Amino acid sequence: MPTPANWIPLRWPSAWVDPALLGLLEGTPFNCLAMEWSAALAPVAAKARAAGFSLVAIGNEAARSAAAGAGLAPPPDSVLVPADSVWPGIVGQASFNGQTNVAELSGPTADPWIDSNGWLLRLANVRSPQKTVWLMFAPPAAPRVVLLDAYLRAIADTGAWGGRWVVALDSDLQGGLARGDTKAMESWKAIAAAVAFFEPRRAAWSALEPLGVAGVISDFAGPNETTSHEILNLMGRRSLAYRILEKSAAATASLDGFKALICVDEGAPSPPLRRKLLAFANQGGLLLVGAAWNRPEGQPTGTDHPRVDVRRLGKGRLAVSKTDSPDPFMIARDVHMLLGRQYDVARFFNLSAFLSHCTASPDRTRELVQIVSFAIRFPNDLATAWVPGKYASARLWSLGAADSSPVEMVPENGGTSLLLPAVPVYAGIELSGKKG
Fold this sequence. Notes:
Layout: E1 9-11, E2 32-36, H1 42-50, E3 54-58, H2 61-69, E4 79-80, E5 89-90, E6 95-96, E7 99-100, E8 114-115, H3 118-127, E9 132-135, H4 148-159, E10 164-165, H5 171-179, H6 182-198, H7 202-206, E11 209-210, E12 214-218, H8 225-237, E13 242-246, H9 247-250, E14 260-263, H10 271-282, E15 286-289, E16 299-300, E17 308-313, E18 316-321, H11 328-339, E19 347-349, E20 354-360, E21 366-373, E22 383-388, E23 390-398, E24 405-406, E25 408-412, E26 415-420, E27 426-435
Parallel strand pairs: 1-2, 2-3, 4-9, 9-10, 12-13, 12-14, 14-15, 15-18
Antiparallel strand pairs: 5-8, 6-7, 11-20, 16-17, 17-18, 19-22, 20-21, 21-27, 22-26, 23-24, 23-27, 25-26
C-alpha cells in the first residue's frame, strides 16, 4: 500500500454508494479515497480497502467521528491541508455557450481578477517543507456549469506549485459518470490524465528553487496574516517573481540574489533583522518597510511618491510606507515599479489572464517556466516567453502529454525568446544547458 507521500487522492462522492463505481478508478492514478462518512458508504469502503486503496476521513466533526468507528482516520500529520484554498479561475466567471466575457471581470489592474492557490502552496512548502500539501476546494455549485477546462485548470494550478488537489467532482459530472454517459467518461479520462501528468515529474520539479529577486519577509500570521498573504497573491498576479523569507529566520538567511525586500509587518523588526536589512539597502538593494520603521535612515530623494517616502541609503534605497495599513495591491505595484523590469526572470507576450512560476536548479543550468492560463485561447493564439541568458535546449510539456516537444529559441535582447504554440490551459517549458 502506498505511503501518504504517494497518495493521490479523490474525494469520493457521497452519492456513490454502489461499490461497482470503483471500476471508474481502473487505469487512473487515484490510490486514495477521501470520504465524508455515512453508513451507506460501508460497502464501498470495504471493497476499496480490499483493493488496496488508502481511505481517509473528511468532513465535519460528526462525519469524522462516525468514520473513526468504521476504521477511517483523517489525513496523517505528514499531510498538510490548508483551510483557505479556492477554486482556481477568474472571479465571478460566467459563461454563455462555453465562452467567457473576460472584459466584464476586471480588477484594479483592468485585467481579469484571478483566484489561484499558487501563493498558498508556495507559502505552505516554505513553512512545512517536509509535508505533502493537499488542497480541498470544490467546484462551483449549480447553476454554474463546470467545463472540462476548469477541471484541468484546477489540476494545473495545484500541480504547477507542487501540491495535490483532492479531486472533487460537481454533481452533473457525478451523475453522468454513474450513468456511464459518454461525454462524462471522456471528461473523466482527461481529468485522470491531467492528474497523472504531474506525478512522474513531481520530485524533479519540486527540487528546483523558485526564482525571483524580490523577497517577502513576514511571520505570515496573526495581525500580519491578511496583508502578507495578499502581497504574495498580488505579486504573482503581476508576474513579479518572488521568494519567501520567514521573519524568524530572515536575520541569519542569505540575501544573495535579492534586489528588493518587502518587510511591512506590524511592529518594528528585531534589532538583528533591522541591521541585516539596512546592510542590504546600503549595498544597493531596495528595501520597502512599514510605517513602524521608526527613525528612517538615509536622505530624502525628493521623489513625490503618494504612498512611500523614498530615501537614498548608501548604494540603495529605503522606501517607508506613509500609512499604518498599506494596501497590499499597491505594495506589489510599487515594489515592481521602483525595482523596474531589468530584473525580470521571464516576460510574456500575447498572453492574458495567466500566472507563471519560474524555478531553477541550484547551479542555474536548468530552468522551468510554468504557465497556467485562465483565459479562453484559440489555436492561432501563439505566445512568446522571454528569459534572460541562453540555453542549449528548450522543451515544452503540455497537460496530459506523454512526452515533451522542442521549442524554437531566438536570441533576443540579451536573452532568449521562446516561441510557444497556443497555451490552452497549461505549459511547462524545460530549459537546459544554460550558457554563461
